[in-house]
Amino acid sequence: MEVISYKEPYESIKDLPVGILVFEEDFGNLEYAGGLAESIKRVLSVEDFKGKEDTIVKVPLLDGDKVRTFYIVGLGKRDKVSFDNYRRASAIFVKRLRKDKVPTACLYAGQDLDYKRSKAITEGLLLGNYSFDKYKTNKENSFCVDEVKLYGGDKEGIRIGSIFADAQTFARDLVNEPGNVINPITLAEIAQRLAQEYGLECKVYDEKQIQEMGMYALWSVGKGSSTPPRFIHLTYKPQGEPRDRIALVGKGLTFDSGGLNIKTGDYMRTMKMDKSGACAVLGIMKALAQLKPQIEVHGIIGAAENMPSGSAYRPDDIIKTMSGKTIEVDNTDAEGRITLADALYYASNLKPSYIIDMATLTGACIVALGEYTAGLFTNNDEFGDKLLRLSLETGERLWKLPMDDKKLREKIKKSDADIVNTGGRYGGAITAAMFLEEFVGEGIKWIHLDIAGPAYLKEEFGYYSKGATGFGVRTCLEYILSLDKGA
């Protein structure tokens, strides 16, 4: 779908349906409909429509000898409206267009939209138009909108919003692909094609090279599968001297059966989503090649399948990592942190100022925060607080959890090795983050995002459909652009 800016009055729009965003009990934006504004208000009164957030009503009206269709969408109270309200309202609008099989429409959200509102609206439109129907033989119910004209939309806001949403959609597509399509080898091939198309550097290490580099943590998790692991390193380098360097690390379990500590059927279902962190990194790298910030960015992915077999790693195994530290395996289903151990150490050796890792890491984080919020863990409060502030604009909910509980940290130290891969049931998201911190280089500012809850949804809401969300893509992009601006 394409979003374009226009500045034509309502009377010259011809027969296109028009969406109008209104504030709760403040219908001033209806004046855009000219002489039909009062008729719309009467219909809204009959429908008891107040303009509350996340509500929509369709209003067909006779205009001379034609029927004109309006979609009135609520933003909520004016003094409480955030950028995400605009994003959600736009998504609700485009989802209704899809339901009504409308290919082209106009959207009015007020006079002279600024950059941020235009960007948020564009993201909402594109994300709400998403459909994963690749494997449906009957696509009758897979209608998507072709074009939305945004009145007074800021062209740069539309451009950047389109890049952001496209990156998130790219990640969603990858996550939604099943394990028989995307495995460690095919994921690496996707990264190589992405690099070739967008001018990124890409190095892929096979199973032999992984062992030669001493990445026995990644190797151990992946060796139980007939499809061997891969280690992926993508690099975006700006022209001229970079202002800073950041590494993004994504958990790339293309399927997680739990290994020898095998999951039950209910918990194994949807485990294609355990590559969400890796897919988010790929989406971000795709966007950076188009945004071209003056920041050097490294995308790091350890890709593996965690499968049970005669060659699978076992509980009680002790594994030597690339860093030289040893890990005792308590539970083979706590495999993500083991793969990230080598990935974080490798990323640290690149000497970035910042590392952000994204991982569908723990069910404990979902228990703590629910399905719609990711846990944020950091060794630098200033870094963490900035990402939290940016997430308020992007609508990707984050909540900071503590890293200073010494008694919890002791739980992952009680081992025959340097560290054990689980710290018990209680505080599981925190002990998992503490485990990861052991492999982050000294002096590097680091954030771990546990995206286990919001990475994959069982039902649609707002601008998300059921399935993969691409969570984390837009917030990380905002952070990198803020580094570029020195903000």
What's this entry about, in short?
The protein is an alpha/beta fold and 487 residues long. The protein has helices at 37-46, 83-99, 115-128, 155-176, 184-198, 207-212, 216-222, 265-268, 276-291, 336-348, 363-369, 381-394, 406-411, 428-437, 473-485, and strands at 2-6, 18-22, 56-63, 66-74, 104-108, 147-151, 201-205, 230-236, 244-256, 295-306, 318-320, 326-328, 354-359, 374-378, 398-400, 419-420, 445-450, 456-457, 467-468.
User: In total, how many domains does the architecture comprise?
Assistant: 2
Main beta-sheet strand count, sense and barrel state = 8 strands, mixed
Proportion of β residues? 15-25%
| Total number of strands | 19
Tell me the CATH architecture of the largest domain: 3-Layer(aba) Sandwich
> Are there runs of 5+ residues with pLDDT below 50, and where?
none
Separation of termini? 32 Å
What is the radius of gyration? 24 Å
Structural class: alpha/beta
Count of individual helical segments: 15
- Which fold does the CATH topology of the largest domain refer to? Aminopeptidase
Q: What share of the residues lie within helices?
A: 25-40%
Strand order of the largest sheet: 7-8-10-9-13-17-14-15
What does this structure look like?
A hairpin with a 2-residue loop joins β3 and β4. This protein has an eight-stranded mixed beta sheet with strand order 7-8-10-9-13-17-14-15, sandwiched between helices. Strands 1-6-5-2-4-3 form a six-stranded mixed beta sheet, with helices on both faces. The protein has a three-stranded mixed beta sheet with strand order 11-12-16, covered by helices on one side. It is of the alpha/beta class. α10 packs parallel to α14. The longest helix is centred in the middle third of the chain and has 22 residues. It folds into two domains: 152 residues, Leucine Aminopeptidase, subunit E, domain 1 (3-Layer(aba) Sandwich), CATH 3.40.220.10; 308 residues, Aminopeptidase, CATH 3.40.630.10. It is elongated, with a radius of gyration of 24 Å. The chain starts with a strand and ends with a helix.
